[in-house]
Each structure stands twice: as structure tokens, then as C-alpha cells.
Amino acid sequence: MKNPILLKEFRQRMRTSRAPIVVTGYVASMGILTFFLLYENVQGQLYLFQPARSQQVFTILSLIQMIIVAFLTPAFSAGTISGERERRTLAVLLTTPLSPFSILFGKIIASSALQYLLLLASLPLYSLVFLFGGAVPQEVLAVLVFQLFTIFIIATISVMWSTVALRSGWSTVLSYATVSFMIFITGSIGLGLQSLASNPVDADVARYGQFFLSLNPLWIEAELENAVHSGNAEWVLFVIFYFAVACCLLPFCIWRLRPQWLWRIPGLTRVNERNYQ
Amino acid sequence: MIQTQHLTKKFGRFTAVDKLNLYVPEGTVFGLVGENGAGKTTTLSMLATLSTPTSGKAVINGYDVVRHPSDVRRSIGFMPDSFGVYDDLSVDEYLEFYADCYAVPRAVMQKRRQDLLERVQLVDKRHTYVNALSRGMQQRLEIARCLMHNPPVLILDEPASGLDPRSRIELRSVLKELKALKKTVVISSHILYELAEFADEIGILRRGQIAAVASVSVMLQHSSSQRTLWIATKSSQHVLEQALRDVPEVSSVTYFPEGVEVIYQGTLEEQSELLLKLLRRGVRVSQFAERPTDIEALFLRLTSEREEGGSA
């Protein structure tokens, strides 16, 4: 189905010089990093083909890529709705018959499209890693799909913060707090609990530690690359948890965009509030 | 076409719109006039489904604004008092975007866009980015945008605000075009004379309530018992002065080199009697015309009369 928001956003975002500059800069930086890692890999070594070391290069590259796109996504998504409000274009948009789902979906896809493009544009770099063995195409595909999902979920949460918060400043803070939680907080708590549980062995604490690590995209990605082993398909918990977070934020977005949808629920229709637009 | 019943909007303890009852028949251009803070924008926001009434009811084109907001949105074209435009979109793309929002078929959209750009005199700007247009052009583009889905109702909130005199004149000609399209229009302004040119009816909003509703012609010709007349003569000033002195309805005379301005308390019929009296007394009248009533003064008098009546 045609989404007018998506078409408009693509027109606006992709016709400026910013998009090609970001893609070129990103691919060039990742290319330099890849060549550097591959060069370091073979320096002083007797054999050129060392699959184990090549696997490490793939892991390092994909983890760096995940961190970059995870922190880049809120920069493009956190001001989408609040920015419309600040530029005074939201009121007119809300008088059109577009549903809140249509508005949010268009904003999410449009604001994360550049990051998808970055991932796809950097795929040829992985083919260099293939030359030296180690990573297999299934792993690369799994990592790519997981990275695409992580970008989608970060963009979704950022756009939702942008809808709920009245100002772009606040939505940016909340979006980066979310990414920090995903990467730093869950990682620190998870690894901390795991180390606490190892001596003496405490199964409960270890389980809690594993739970927090399951919410960390870097950990899941490392697991998909067989760099760490937990024995469970932890990406399922990751997907369910963040999907649930997005579902929890959705009613607040509807409350902001289409208060009439909630007119049957007393106290939720914002009757005493000043205009959101 | 538009009807409100006891429409109320409260922000905490403050009542912005207080039990507003309004009826705008189909094809009428209704001007909503009031001072800043009178409740115009809040009323129009509720009609445009942007804010929810605290109580009361508003129906547009047969649809309740709370229960059937999507149908209301398809029935209206809304222009807010303060709006922004999207960067990096051309005039054509801007109109296309809003047509897509209303799922207007492509062939219809292209034809309508051409027609509307001609009406708002922006055909030569169709490939210009909207953020590069002047404020006046953006206002006209917004009116075209409101009409892209051909709604039966237009809600325009202070469309002339922030415009220079030239842009105001250009906008006024576009608004007059709307009247020819037989749309039902609700248009707000705090400047009464701006609406007097093309509105059929004017409602004066005061503290969230309608203080007066009247057709423009009635307001100008019958509600006012005070008229400003311009009289130019070929007789001497002394003769004219003598003639006017004996007319009790004349309350004030101001002399100018080209003629006199007379404040006359009377009806249209009595006004013609004045001309007869002057001619009978030998005044050689070369010009005798009623000057447009100072509608702002009328507005102030009407509202202050009601206030005095209310406080008495």
C-alpha cells in the first residue's frame, strides 16, 4: 500500500547532498578499517589463509558496524514527529485522514532507510573477509538480518519517543538513553552478574545475567557469529522484549496523535490539555 | 453544514470556549471575529479534530467531530493560523503529497493541481521549493492545499495574519474565488473589515461565546444608526453650513477643502431626505455618498453595548 509519508520523506532526505556524503564517508571509513585489520592479520604470519583470524576480523567489523548504526539511528529518528511539531507542519498533517500507524510506519522506515543503505553498501567489505576464509555466508546473512532488525527497533522506539515528547531535545535524550540501555547497561549488568555467579556457582544469578545479556544487541550478534556460546536462541528473547517495549509505547503515541481514538476511555482524551500540535 | 451545540473547551479552570452554539448553512462564508484570546483558534481546532471538546457537540457535513473524526477530516480543508512548510519539496510535490494523504487518484490530482495553481496564481512557481516562496505565496499555496481533496468545508484560521499589504490584497482575491466555488467556509480574523468583503455572515466571538451573529449587509446598513456621509458642493461653505445646522440628525461636520464629512444619525430613507433638504435650500450638491462604515467601530460599539447590558 502506498504510504505518502514514506514517499515524501524519501524525497526530502535523499535529494540533499547529506545522504551520499554519509554513505561515502561510512563505506570509506569501514573500508580503511577492514584493510587495516586484514593487513594486521597477515603481518608477520607464515600463511596468508588463517580462517580463525579472519573470523575475528569479521566479528570486530560487524560489532563496530552495529555500534555505529545503533548510535546513528536516533540522530535520524528522534526528531521526526517532534520536529514536525516544531516546524508547525504537524497540525495540517493531523487533519488528513492518515492513521497514526501510517504516520509512524512512514516515519520509522524513512528515518532508518539510510542506515539500511549503509549496511547494504558495506556488504562488499565482508566479501573481502570471505577471501581469507573463516566466516560463512549463513553467518553474514544472520548478522545482516539481525542488524536490520536492531536498526528497525531503535528507529521505532526513537520515533515513538519523538511522538510522546513535546520537544526534539527530550526525544533525543530519551532515544540515546534507550540505546545506552541496550548496549551499555544490559552489557554491564549481564556480565557483572555472570562474573558474580561464577564463584561460587549460583544458577539464579547466572540466569539473570543471561537475561540481561539477551537484551544486548552486541551479545546477540556475537552469539550469531559463534564468538560467544550460551546454548539458547537468545535472539528470540531480544526480539520479544523490544517488540513489547514498542507495543507499550504505541498507546501513548495514539494518545498524542489521535486522541479521539480514546474518547470512550475517561481521562485519556486529553480534553483538558492544550493543543499537542 | 456546520453545527455546534454547547461546544465547550476548558484548559484546567480556564474556559476557552463556553457553550458555543453556531450554525453555518451550506455554501455560506462565515466570518468568526474576535479579539486575541476570544477563543477563535480553539473553536476552529475542535472543528478541525485537532483538539477534543470538553463537552458539547460539533457536527460537520453530518459527522460528529469526536465520534467520526476521519469522516470530518475528509470533509474539511484546514489552514491553521501559524503553519510551516516542508523543506526540499517543490510546489507540485507539496500538493501531490497532500493529495496522496487523501488518496486522490493520480489523474484527478494532476488536473486539480493545475486548476488550483492557476487559481492561486502560482503556476509559474510549480517547480520552486516551497520554503523558497514568500510568505504571501505560501499562504496562497496553503489555500490550494486545502482544496486538493475538494472538501465541501474550509476552515481558515486567520489566513491573512503576518502578511504585508500587497500579499493581503492578493490573498483577498484568492479568498473571493473561494466564494465562487460555493464552499462552506469558516474564516477567522481579528480584523473585521477584512472579512466584510467576502463573508456572508459574521459572528463576533467574545470570551468563548458568540456575542453577535449577523449578515454583513445587515450589520453595515441596519445595525448601525450612525452613517458617515461625504458631501461635496459647488456652493460656498457658508450656505452648506446654514443648511446642515437646521438638520437635527447631523451630529458632527468636518470641513475639508474638497467637501465635508457629515456624521448622520438616521436610516437609509432619512438619509435621502437630507439630500432633498440640501437641494431645497439651494445647496449645489456635486457629490453625496455614504462612506463605508468604520466596521471596527461598529464592532466595538456592538460588543461594548452588550457588555454594558450584561453588567447592568
Automatic annotation (TrEMBL), chain A:
Pfam family name, one: ABC2_membrane_2
Sorted UniProt keywords: Membrane, Transmembrane, Transmembrane helix
Domain of life: Bacteria
GO cellular component annotations of the record: plasma membrane
GO terms for MF: ABC-type transporter activity
Signal peptide annotation: none
Chain ranges passing through the membrane: 21-39, 59-78, 116-133, 140-161, 173-193, 235-255
Name used for this protein in its record: ABC-type transport system involved in multi-copper enzyme maturation, permease component
Source species: Alicyclobacillus tolerans
UniProtKB/TrEMBL annotation, chain B:
Family the entry assigns: Belongs to the ABC transporter superfamily.
CDD domains the UniProt entry points to: ABC_DR_subfamily_A (cd03230)
Domain ABC transporter: 2-232
InterPro entries membership: AAA+_ATPase (IPR003593), ABC_transporter-like_ATP-bd (IPR003439), P-loop_NTPase (IPR027417)
Protein name (record): ABC-2 type transport system ATP-binding protein
Signal peptide limits: none
Coiled coil (UniProt feature): none
Pfam families named in the record: ABC_tran
